[in-house]
Amino acid sequence: MDFHPTGRPMSDSEAAAEAKRILDAHFPPEQPVRHFPTSFRDDTELPAHGTTPPVHQDDKRVVPEWAAGVAVASISVGAGSVGLGCCAWLVLQGLASATLYGVLMVTIPFAGTAMVATAIGCAVSKVRKAGPKSVYKGPVTQKTEIQVNNSTRGMFFTRTRNDIR
Fold first, then answer.
1. I need a surface site. Which of 107, 122, 137, 153 has the fewest CB within 10 A?
2. pLDDT of 17 higher than 90
3. Distance CA 86, CA 107 (A)
4. Angle at Cα 148 formed by Cα 143 and Cα 149, nearest 5°?
């Protein structure tokens, strides 16, 4: 395309005619443009209750057994930590220097120990369940064949080749 014309500029009617010619050449008006709705809204009133009974929906969630056990153990560790914290707070309540942060610092080792014990217990149970998946119970034949082909040649430059299969 020539973006720097050397002639005179087009008038508005000439530019409109040229634009129509280009559009008709590249986009023929043979197929009409079809308009489709892009959304739909149903404004009918919903009944408060009806005659259709509720439909049973099966529970399709799949949670591994070990994950459920870890969740239960974590909840129990949290509850135990709260219990230990309450006990420590009650014991230290009479002391003037006991603050909430002090109680939290006292209970942190107990909560950490409980979390480590839970993690070790989960790891041990997974290792126990892992076990061998399949055991082959058939005759096993082991064959070892050693062929020694000693072919030494030459006087000063020798080459020894041992083939072991």
1. 137
2. yes
3. 9
4. 135
